[in-house]
Amino acid sequence: MASESISVTTSDDQTIQLSRKHAQMSQTINSMLEDSVGADQEAIPLPNVSSEVLKKVIDWCTHHENDPAPVEKVKKLNKKREYKAKNSTISDEWDKNFVNAELRVIVDILLAANYLDVKGLFELMCKHIANELKGKTPDQIRERFGIQDDLTEEDKAAMRKAWGATKNDS
Amino acid sequence: MDVSQGNQHNSHNGFNLLSVELIVHILENLHPFDLCACRDTSFAWRSIVDSVMKWKCLPFTHSSLGIVPPADLEKLVYYNKNALLCDNNDDSSHTFQGFLFGMINEQIEEEHAVSPWVHTLTALSTDDPNEVVTSKLRQQCIEHLRKAEELNPKNIMAWMNHGYFSVTWGDYASAKRAFKTALEKFTRNEAEVSYYYNVAYTYYRLNNDNAALEYFKKSLELYHLPFKSNNMAPTIEFSAAYFQRRSQVMPPDDHTNRPVLSLLQTIISSLPKTSASSSKSVEGRSDRNNHKSVAIDIRTCRFLNEFSRERKTPKSLFSSSISLARCFNHIATSLQFLDKNDEAFEFYSKALSENYDLPNVHYGLAWLYNSNKNVNKARYHFEMAIELNPSHIHALTKLGWVHAEAGNEDTARQYFAKSLELDPNYAPAQNGMADTFVYDIALLADNMRARESIGQLMLLLEKYPKYSNGYILLGTLYFTELEEFTNALTAFKKAMELAPNKKLCYEVAKCHYVLGNYEEAKRELEEELRLIEECITSHVICHVNTNGSLKESHKRQLTRVHILMGDVHQKLGEYEKAMEHYNKAQNNSKHKTVYYGLATLHAKMENFSMSHRYFEESIQGVEFSESDLMVWAASRRRNWQDNERAIQLFHRVMSISPLHIQVHREWAEMISSEISRMKREGYEYSNSKRTVSELEEMRREHVETSEKIRTDLIGELSQVLISIGKKEEGTGWLERSNRIEQTNNFYIPRVITQWFTSE
What range(s) does the F-box domain occupy (chain B) (predicted)? Predict the structure, then answer.
C-alpha cells in the first residue's frame, strides 16, 4: 500500500515531506509517482524549486485541497463561461493575501507552479500579474516590471499611426 | 525569442525569467486596451503582444446591421479589435467596429450608465461624465466608418451605418451625404425602398420638403404603388405599414415618423376633393368602395396623427366633404381603437348631429357604451342600428351578447338566431349562441362530472362547429379534469385554427410539455413570445399603454411563457437557455414558480448552494401566490352557493400552496445528489458548509414536510368535500393524492393550471 506522505528534495538540497493528496495536485509529481510505483521511499528531486517556494506551494495546496479538480471545471464550462473565466478578478480572500508578496516571489511561485503543473496556482499567479499590468501606461509598466524602453521615437510614431493612441498618449 | 531581450538592466524582480509562453498566459487575462499598453513598452513586448493578438484573432470581420445583444457587444469589440490589429486595412472590420461602437453608445444612452469596461474602451478615467464617454464612442464609431469608406468606397454598409448613426445623433447633413452615397453606390438594377426613404428623411429633417417629397415618391414608386392623387388609399396604407415595420426595429419616436406624417399631410390635402366627387352617388356600389378608401385614409391619418401627437382639426381636413358624418364615424372608431373613449364619444356625437340615420354610427356608439358598462344606452343604440339596417349582423350579434351578459338568455338566443339566419357560418353568432348553453355544461364539470359535460359539449360543437370557445373549454376539461393530454391538444389546436390567439399557443405548448414533446412546446412558446412582443410594440405605437394595465397583463403573459420555456429547455438539457428564460421571468415577476424552476435547474447543474437558495426563495416567495389561489377559489363561489363554511375551509386549505409539496420533494432529491457527490469526491463539507449527516437530516425533514402538506391539503380538502355532500369531487382529490403517492410525480393540474392561467 502506498504511504500517506511523499518526500521531495528541493534545489537547495532540503528534503520536505508532503502529503500524497497535496503531491497529487501537481501533475508533474503525480506522473513521477506513477512512473516509480514501489519506490515510494525515495525522495523525488525537484531541481527547479527552492524550499521557500515549495512551502508556499504546499500552503496553497492545503487551502485548496477540497476544490473540485480543475479538469472537471473546464469540462463544465460552456463557451460563455470560458470567456468569463479569463476575467482576472481574484475572488478568494485567502488567495488575495497569498499573492500579496514581492514580485520576485510571485514570479518564483509562477515558475514553480508551471514546472510542477499545479493548474489552479498557475492561473492565480497569471491573474495576479495581469492585474498588476492592468490600467497602467507603458511607462508605469516599464517602471513596475523593470523593462527597458528600447523603442525609438519612429517606432512609437509608427505604432500610434497603425493602432491608435493608448492611455499613455491621451 | 525571450522577453529578457527587453529588460537586460532590470533583473531584480525576476521578471526576465519568464518565457514567452508564460507571458502569453498572463496576457490572455487582459483586455485589448491593456494589451496595447504592454505592447508599447518595449520591442520584445511588442512582438509578444502582436503574436498574442494574431493568435486570438477570430473571424468577426463581416459587417452586419443585425441587432447585437448588449451582452455580446463587449466580446465582439474585443475580437474585432484583434482582427483589426492583424489587418488594419480590412474595410469590413472597420465597418463592424464602427457599428459596434455606435451600438454601445446607444446602449449607454438608453441605460444612462457607463460600465467600467467602457471607460477602459474609451480610455477615459471613471470620473468623466457620461457625455464625455458617449462623445468619445461616437467619435470612434464615425472614425472607423470613415476609415472603411476610405478603404472601400463601395462598402455600402459603411455608408448606411454612417448615415444611421448620424441620424441618431442629429447630424442630418452627414447622414444625408452618407445615405446619398450609399444610394449612388448601389449597383443592383433597382435600389431598395429604404435607400430612397433614408435620403428623403434626412432632407425632411434639413427642412428641404421638396427634395424630401421627391425621394418619398421614389420610394413609394419602388413599392409598385404609383403615386397618383386620385388613388391615395394604398399609398397611405403602404406608408402606414412601412412606418409600422420601421417602428418594430426602431424606437417609436417623432424622429422616425415625422416624414411619413409629412407625406400623409401632403396627400390628405387632396382628400376632400376625392370625397366630394365620390359622394355624388352615395348609394352606388362603386362609391361605397370609394368611401371605404377614404375611410382607410382617414383612419390612417388619424392614427398617425395621434401617434405623432400633432393634433389636427379633422374638420379642416375634410371641410368640403358632404359625408362628414362618415368621416367623424371613422375617426371615432379609430379613437375607440386607441382607447381614447372620451374623444371617441365626441366624434360619434358629431357624426350623429350631422346624420342621425347611419346605422354604423349607432353600432359604434353602442359598442362604446357597452365597454363603459352603460348597458341601457348600449342596448338602445344597438336597437337603433338594427332598426336602420335590419340585416346588420354585427349589431344583432352584439345585442345578443348584451342580453346574454344581463342574464336574458332567451332574448339573447333570439338575436343570435337572427344573425345565424342571415349567415349560418358567422362565427361570433355561433359562439354567442353556443355560449348560452355552455354554462350548464361547465357546471357539470365543476361537479366532477367531466365525462358527462364533455359529451354535451361535443353535441354543441357538432351543431355550432365554429364555436372556438367551446374547443377551449373542451381542451381545458381534457387537460385539467381528465388529464387526457392528447385530446386536450387536439381541442386546443382546433380552437387555434378557428380563432388564432396567442394565449392558445401557451395552452398547446403546455399539452406538448406534459406529453414530452418538448421541441413542439418550444416552437409554440416561441410563437407566443413573438406575438406578445408584436402586441407590446403595437400598443406602444398606439400610445394605449397609459394606465399601466396593459403593461401588467403583458408582464404576466411573459412571465408564464418564460417559466414554461425555462422548463422546456431544462427538459431538453439546454440549461443555459433555461437559465436565460427563468431570468427573464424573474425580471417581470418574483413569482415563486420562477424560483422553483431556478432551484431545480441549479440542482441539475450540480450548483447546490444556489439550488438551496432558490428552494428557500420558492418556499417563502416574494409575491406569495395565495392571491392567485384566492382568485381561483373565488371563481368557484357561485358553485358553492350558501355553504360558507365550506368556502372558508376551502380558502384555508388552499392557502397552503400545493407547490410546496413539489418544492420539498425536489429539495430532498437535490440534497440526495449533493450527498452522492460529496461521497464520490470524498469531501467532508458541501459547498453550503454542511456535513453529510446534516444534509441527511435536512433531506429527511423535507420529505416529511412534503408528506405532511400533502396529507393536510388534499386529505382535508377531500374530507370537507365529502362532508358537504360532494362525494365524487372529494373522492377525486383522494384518488389524485394516491396517484402522487404511487408515482412520486406531483401533479395537480387543476390547481397548477389555474396558477398559470389566472390573469
Answer: 18-58
Instruction: Tell me: pLDDT of B304 over 80.
Output: no
Compare CB distances from B40 to A114, A133, A138 and report the shortest one's residue. Answer: A138
Distances (CA, A) of B156 to A153, B63, B102, B147: 38, 10, 17, 13
pLDDT at A160: 57
Give the angle subtended at the CA of A141 by the CAs of A136 and A147, to the nearest 5°.
Answer: 170
User: pLDDT for B207-217, tens place per residue?
Assistant: 776 677 677 66
Strands A44-45 and A15-19: unpaired
SS3 state at A9: strand
Of B557, B458, B450, the residue nearest B507 (C-alpha): B557
Q: Is B576 on the interface with A (CB under 8 A)?
A: yes
CATH fold of A49-162: Potassium Channel Kv1.1; Chain A (3.30.710)
Q: How many CA atoms are closer than 13 Å to the CA of A106, on its beta-carbon side? A: 26
Say if pTM beats, i.e. exceeds, 0.80.
no
CA distance, residue B168 to nearest chain A CA (Å): 26
Distance (Å) of CA B192 to CA B184, B235, B694: 12, 17, 69
Q: List B residues 344-383 in contact with A (Cβ-Cβ < 8 A).
A: none
- Whether B639 has a pLDDT exceeding 70, the answer reads no
> Distances from the Cα of B518 to the Cαs of B483, B567, B756, in angstroms?
18, 9, 18
Give pLDDT, residue B195: 75
- Relative to beta strand A5-9, strand A44-45 is parallel
DSSP bridge partners of B536: none
Helix H or strand E segment including B592: helix B592-604
CATH hierarchy code of domain B3-56: 1.20.1280
A107 CA: distance to closest CA in chain B (Å): 6
- In terms of pLDDT, which residue wins out, B657 or B520? B520
Percent with pLDDT over 90 in chain B = 1
Domain boundaries defined on chain A: 49-162
pLDDT value for B289: 35
B231: left (phi over 0), alpha (psi -120 to 50) or beta: beta
Positive or negative CA dihedral for B442, B444, B447, B448?
Answer: negative
Q: What is the pLDDT of residue A1?
A: 46
3-state SS assignment for residue B628: helix
Average pLDDT rounded to a whole number, residues B92-104: 79
How much is the pLDDT for B270? 38
pLDDT given for residue B499 in this prediction: 78
H/E element holding A6?
A: strand A5-9
By residue count, chain A amounts to 170
Mean pLDDT of chain B: 66
Report the residue of A111, A150, A161 to disrupt the B interface, i.e. the one with the largest count of B CBs within 10 Å. A150
Question: How far is the alpha carbon of A162 from chain B, nearest alpha carbon, in Å?
Answer: 7
Strands A15-19 and A5-9: what pairing?
antiparallel
Contact flag B25-A159 (C-beta cutoff 8 Å): no
Which chain B residues in 652-681 lie under 8 Å from chain A, judged by CB atoms?
A: 681
